[in-house]
Amino acid sequence: MMVIKDLYTHPIKSLRPIPLFDVVITPTGPLHDREFMLIRPAVGNDMADENMTLSRYSQLCLFLQEFYPKGSSSEDAEGVLVTYTPPEKPREEVHGQRAKNDVLLSRQRRVLRVPFRPDTEGLARRKVLMHQTECLAHDMGDSPYSEFFTQCLGIDVRLLYITPENLRTPLGNIAPPPKQVSSGILSLLGLSSGKQEKHNITFADCAPLLVTTEWSLRDVSRRFQHIAESDGGFHRGMDMTKFRPNIVLGAPHSSPGRNPADSGVIPAWDEDYWAELAICPQHPPYDDNTSECYKILLTQNCARCRAINVEYDSGEFGDANLPGGQEPLKCLMKDRRVDLGVNWSPVFGRYGWLEGKASVKVSVGDRVEVVRRNEERTKFYWPGVSTKLREVDS
């Protein structure tokens, strides 16, 4: 038996996540997830705007996020409160040269409020290119948004907002196969309108949801601890939020009278083969004390980048206390390069999509079952991103 152990949303892409007890999940992911993104605007006519991600701008982890008003749920929150927390020892200019990405951190703690439903009238729009997909996003303007991030990072930064009308279209085999859409009298007659459902995403890399498990995280932490101890050191374990999931699955908490066998132990990396999950609410919403289980389709593995090497305390890339300059990403490469579609990257977690619902509410503690498995690992395919293969599952 599995349950949801943690839920996260990331309103501004690549900033620290918001941990939640419950969240509304829509076809484009958890409510408000990655609706905003930071960019570095182009300097010359022959240059392009640069999407700011944690894999290049490690300092983005110094920005914390929470809903406001304080204690709000994903449904009633008015916006996100961003708090910049400078490290104790900020990066200094060395011999007059800044860091490779030009960032020079402010020493001053700052706070910014970003509304979830900004008035976009009069806002300039910018074309965003992300993983070969294009969309138009609204530039939130100079004051206070661009000024806040520019002052914190010491470089010119713009905050972009993506609206439901301008979402990105996933490529390759990431989205589930499209289904025929029926409505009105056609639905009653069991006929199709000829239209196909569309799958869209926000500023999330490839899919609306990312699902991980505590069992696989423990395996990662154990191997890091073993490496550190073999050199006389200590490793505190890997932080799950570095993998930036939306849904974390694990065993239910043990309680008096519970059969230990009911807790269940899922092998590490078993999720590589999961195709479909059923999430069953622990608090039935209906008067007859029954509830409906919601389906999450898991389509592809999530390949990892150097973002997992970022040390949250310093805002810099580090070795996570591993000896010999070893990095978490390189350690995982030894045996987690298991997806032929991304042959040079280790895999952790699965991309997911809500099936057949406009929105559902899930909570920590909800029961989760694997209702369909794949016999073999899937092969990730996204033009321009995946490894070139002669043949890839479509």
Which key terms come to mind for this protein?
394 residues; mainly beta; disordered C terminus
Give an overview in words.
The chain has 394 residues and is mostly beta strands. It is 11% helix and 29% strand. The chain has five helices and 23 strands. It has helices at 142-153, 184-188, 214-230, 260-263, 328-333; strands at residues 2-9, 18-20, 22-26, 29-30, 36-40, 50-51, 63-68, 79-84, 110-115, 125-130, 133-139, 158-161, 180-181, 195-196, 209-213, 247-250, 274-280, 294-303, 310-311, 316-317, 347-355, 360-363, 367-373. Strands 1-16-15-21-18-17-23 form a seven-stranded mixed barrel. Strands 6-5-12-11-10 form a five-stranded antiparallel β-sheet. β1 (2-9) and β2 (18-20) form a beta hairpin. The protein starts with a strand and ends in a 21-residue tail after the last strand.
Give a short summary of the structure.
This protein has 394 residues and is mostly beta strands.
What is this structure's SSE topology?
Layout: E1 2-9, E2 18-20, E3 22-26, E4 29-30, E5 36-40, E6 50-51, E7 63-68, E8 79-84, E9 110-115, E10 125-130, E11 133-139, H1 142-153, E12 158-161, E13 180-181, H2 184-188, E14 195-196, E15 209-213, H3 214-230, E16 247-250, H4 260-263, E17 274-280, E18 294-303, E19 310-311, E20 316-317, H5 328-333, E21 347-355, E22 360-363, E23 367-373
Parallel strand pairs: 15-16
Antiparallel strand pairs: 1-2, 1-16, 1-23, 3-4, 3-22, 5-6, 5-12, 7-8, 8-9, 10-11, 11-12, 13-14, 15-21, 17-18, 17-23, 18-21, 19-20
